[in-house]
Amino acid sequence: MVGPDRTGAAVATAVTAPPEPRSETAERPDVAPRRRRTRASKPRAPRERQPFRVNTAVVIACGLMVVTGLAALFGLFLFVGSAMAAHRDQDVMYGELKKQLALATVPVNGAIATGTPIGIVEIPRLGLEQVFVEGSASEQTIRGPGLRHDTVLPGQAGASVLIGRRATFGAAFARLDEVKIGDKIKVTTGQGQFTYVVDLVRTSDSPDVQIEQVPSRLTLMTSDPAITPTRSLQVSAQLDGDPLPATTRQPTVADDLPGEGSSGRQVSLLLWAQALLVVTGFTTWTALSRPGRRGLWIGAVPVLLALLWQVFENLAVLLPNTL
Amino acid sequence: MQLGCTPRPAPRWRAAWAVVTTGLLGALVVLASVPATGPAAAAPAIAQATAADPAGSGITVPAPAAGPGATVTVSKVDGLVNQSVAVSWTGFRPSSDTRLANAGDSLDVNTDRPVRVYECRGADPVSSSECYGSPGFRGIPATPSDPGVPEVVPFTYPGQTDKYDATPDGPANWQDNVTRADGTGEVTIQVFTKRESAALGCDADAPCSIVVVPNYGRPSGATEDQLDAPWAWARRTVVPLTFQPVADACPLAGTSLRVEGSPVLAAAMASWRARTCTLSQDAVTLDYTSIGEPQTRGDVGSGLTGVGLVVDPLTKEDAAAAGVVYAPVSVTGMVVAFQIDDANGKPVTELNLNARLVAKLVTASYRSGGNPATINNPVNIFRDPELQALNPGVTFPGGSPGNHPLILGDISDTTSALSRWLAADPEAAAFLAGTPDPWGMTVNSNYRGLALPFDVFPLLDPLMSDTYAPVQELDTLARQLSIAQFPGATTIVDNGVNVAIKWPRQNPGRREVIGVIDAASAARFRLSTASLQNSSGAFVKPSETSMLDAVAHSVVGKDGVTRTVDLTSKDAGIYPLTLQVTAALSTTADEDERQQAADFLSWVAGDGQTVGDSVGQLPEGHAPLTDAQRAQVLAAGKAVLKGPPTPKPSPSESATPSADPSDPSDAPSDGGGGAPPDVVGPAPVDASPSAAALLHDPHPSHPVPEQPDMVTVAAQLAGHKLVVLPLLAILALLSLLGGPLLMWLGQTGRGPQWLRR
User: Fold this and answer.
1) pLDDT at position B54 over 80
2) Treating both helix axes as pointing N-terminal to C-terminal, what angle do B10-32 and A294-317 enclose, rounded to 10 degrees?
């Protein structure tokens, strides 16, 4: 920490004692160790400045600082923490899907439970390999790209739409705009492997274009630009080969549409926020009534962080499913 | 922030933490009002279906071994196909109970003197080991006082690997029942040909027999579980059966006419094709494949087949491509068939159903366990007050939970016809939309707002997926209904492991299956059919009269031939699920094929319309065509012979192939594509139509023209900018600057006075 600083005597005195044999005064070596020993038990020496007083300014300032802290933490969660969670989810789902593919038990028709991993989408140019799940509402796309409930499974006759995130939660489709016409998209589902060839890369507000009408089409969608989206980015590809017959799918779900947030977790958001409030209140009360307990903070901080994480995740679900 | 290692003045902390909580809530409020961006999507498309009646040549034989003066009557013994026959008996010794106390595959060990009816190999089987599914008899070891009884092995057949596997071709068809106090009793048994059971192998050259075995004991052991004992077999009555040629009558050699389409016509085509090749003039060999009508439409449109049997017409484009002309082939219908035994074990033969009850059945709306989607509903149809109100005087059984119907799992015009009937009935439509019925029952919430009409029964409730399971293939469906086996699977615990198995079949006295099949199958399997409520409010049974009445009051398509029942007509005689099966004939086919198609039509217009159960006749459950319809058949025959229409469409039939645009049958049939992605916006949808076309055609190389079809992807206006995240960042930054600034102002006394309070 403090090195052989021979000029800053005052600093050394205030913070810690330099074990400096060539100090200016002979008593220093004795004084410093003593002070260090007694520091925890003795009240701090009064400051030189005028005494600190709590007034309106302090209260408002602290409030603003807390807002800053929370916003910063939320940003940290969105751009760092959520990616960790998404990568972990992808790992788990990949393992699960691998097992199910081997057993041939991957669901391919009927009412597939929302959120079930149903296949893997790969774009070699981007080095992208993602497990995609049933349903494309915000709750599902936080784990990986989602297949819209009302579109057929890739490889089947008809239109399939996968919706993925551009900026947060691992940002599976972050570089979707780098895809070029003619690129391959490989999809593996319980029915086999399918290769699609990209024939359209566009944003939703670009001028009208003509595309070929084909039996089976896969469209990847995300939002554009990444942080402040105004439109959607669409990459559409046609199946190379013969499609399989389509199976029955489910009706349209409003939350599935690209750019929609989901209100499905509002209740859990409320409950987690309440839990956070209660724990915060309890910690504060304890800290005030029994000051000086290190143990309190050792116990409370992880709990508070875990609760914050939950609140943030549920909060993020309110954001668009393509963000 | 330094966390309480040192004591601090309490007021400062209090204030800080108060702010923590306030700030948290503030942040939540900001984020909860997140605006969304992005375009909206289109809705999915869906499509549509219809019903009949049974009969036979009976024989009564004496059954001396079963009792003095005893007789056995079998409803039909000659010229059999895969069908059900009724077997009844008189003069037998009465059983000790009024019905067998067995459920599924178990055997009753308490009721004495039951009777079993077997189908056995050969005209004179030597033991019950010759009878399909016989469980066998274990034998009784000899003791000093008893000479013992030898073992009787279960059903044996060539290629058997497991001695105890008596049902190599699916569930057994033998039937057990009791003899009533007056010495009579009856069962209905489904007769297997070699197509259904190779192990039994019955066909025109290998006769089989019906064997009626009463178990009177010796005198002990007179129960159902010992029905294969030698003492019971000794009292048997054997009635030999003969079969129609299953497939050998007209071998597919030389030229044949490829016909594909509606499974509803499968039995009629089987009967016709065994006759048409032996006609003295205009003989034609039919090569018939039973596939769904939607796919048939695609195959005709793309030229894969020259003759397709459909219910709803082709799309305008497909019809024009193949120069299609239409000819009515048969009038039949979809029926709600059932095997229900009332609370006393007696078969229910009459049932009145309205569209709402059928809607409840096909949407899995009866309660099943704790499924929240149906939690407030009756546990099955028998406990539904509406059914009881429509059928006064019937004491319905308690029934199983859910009791889901046996319905078709394929995409089919028959399903479309059924759903159109549901849609046309105001009560059923309101029920499906979510309105409770007068007794408070609501539709399964997963099906609320179901889009009508549909051409395949949608599976929307994952919790019902085990038991609400449509059956693929109409023939399989009808046979399963005939042996009274629930759809789906049940779970049993085997050695501590949960195992899903098929439901066991239900036995006479305890049956409770309901299904939607075609009228001809219901007649073939002697199933009772429900009277359905038509638009006039009358309950009408499917019969020749009611189906022809429906034809008389039908909506004719623009092609002048295809028909759908007029669901707005107030005529009281209409059977609402009547179907007219129509042949769509391509005039662009080869001349040979068109000649054969014309020969086939002349058969259809003539001798093919005699209703009866011998070879070449129209099976029971079909109604013969009216004179007007026959005239249409002959006209179509001429048009087919004439060949493709000239480039300038003439006012002939062949030139107006499209359906009435107002006809609901015109639109559907795609079944697959689902909703288009909003890639395409509201403009011509990209993949959906082509997906549909592909469904119809397994060989896409045919219809896809050289020039690929193009669709336009329309531009959409950009939405609002999503500014939540930047706003949040700005807020954080402002707070970061504002906080210390305020603090500084407060501490140095430069700010306004209230800051220092």
Assistant:
1) no
2) 10
